[in-house]
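Entry type: protein chain
Record version: 2
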Amino acid sequence: MHDADVACAALLLVIIAVSLLSNLLVLICFVHNAEIRKEAPALFILNLTFCNLLQSVSNMPLTLAGLLTSGRQQRGGGALCQTVGFLDTFLTTNSMLTMAALSIDRWVAVVFPLSYHSRVRRRDAAAAVGYTWAHSLCFSAAASCRSWVGYHQLYASCTLRGARAKGGGLHFLVFTVALHALSFLLALVAMCVTYLKVLRVARFHCKRIDVITMQTLLLLVDIHPSVRQKCLDEQKQRRQRSTNKISTFIGTFVLCFTPYVVTRLLELFSPEHINAHWGALSKCLVYGKAASDPFVYSLLRHQYRKTCGLLARKILGRSQRESFSAVLKANARRNQDDQLGANATNDHGQAPCSKSSLGQ
């Protein structure tokens, strides 16, 4: 087993653990917070979390097994591997389209804030989720019907096989290009266009707030220099906050999916020039998106952080109450034992005295 495979396996093991814990935490927050459930984008978050969890318990463990065993147990392309390969295409495409839907939702919320609730309703969000499922099912079902799903040695996982598979050649090339164009490229264009418009609106509002802030600082002549500096620092942070968020949304998408998509397209023309370890690493980067999505889209938001804090306080408070009640019970039991011991000592002390009085 090569050292690169060991490193990829260790990385994938960490990704599985983080993905399971973080996505389960998102589901727990979704269940315990009614405000989160009322929002229309919650359906997108729920769909994305479902895809990430299903990928964490199906695709990732088999890829880990493929790295550890060099694919010896999966080269036959059995029913389990074909099912997981079907899920790989379906879940990856569904996740990309869901991220595009989230970007469109943010664009409508920022550009049309007054009419947002009338433009984006729960049934509209449900229709968008239904489209992502139908879109993903079409490609994954087509690949399964053409027997293009099985174990791929380059990626050490059950996924779409190369052009040498049964029914490959030109048909597989057209299918692969269409799949990535209508999933990765479509989602990337939608995210770039919508988030750049959101950034433009955010910067416009920041400029208006900055003008009001500077006018206020000029009028307040007697303001303390520390307060003035604090206002200027908040003004600078306000400008950077929206840029950092949008850079995170687009940056994680590009970083995690681009290497895999580019490798897939290069594989169609020159598969012999692709390093096997690079293929496994690009697949691990795709799985890394499932671990980062809960933090990018959910857990760092105020509602989720508030819910996590409340749940943590409940758990800690319950454990403290249980430990306190256990201490009280132990003290009561100890006092009871001491009382019984004292009573037994008194009884033994009184017995000889009664016998001596009888002898007299």
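Comment: The chain has one domain: 3-316.
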